[in-house]
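Extended Data, panel c. Modelled sequence:
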Amino acid sequence: MAPDFRSAAFDETVLSAWRQVLVDSAKRVTVGDDSYPVRRTAKHKLAQVDFQFEGTPVRGLEQNPQTKSRWAQLARKGSKVMQFLSGGRYVAVVYDGKITHYGDKQSEPG
């Protein structure tokens, strides 16, 4: 069964991952009893962490501020933005401690 990417448990997990990576600059992210390394992408040196949520792989990826999206615009202004993907699809984004789930009516920052 697929995990609920809108659950309180998922929100808590991605908020924690976001905080550990972009606020605390941790080299490893702790999710439950497990620890996962934070890596940097080759080209842009963006933070990236792969972890498991309820047995499903999830990737947290720091927003590239050089793209044209509104999330990138926030990153250029100093916001700490991390996208979360699972199964090749964006499922949520955390910016400045706030979560937006993809599929919400308001899935872009206002």
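Residues 1 and 54 are 10 Å apart (CA to CA). This feature is highlighted in the accompanying rendering.
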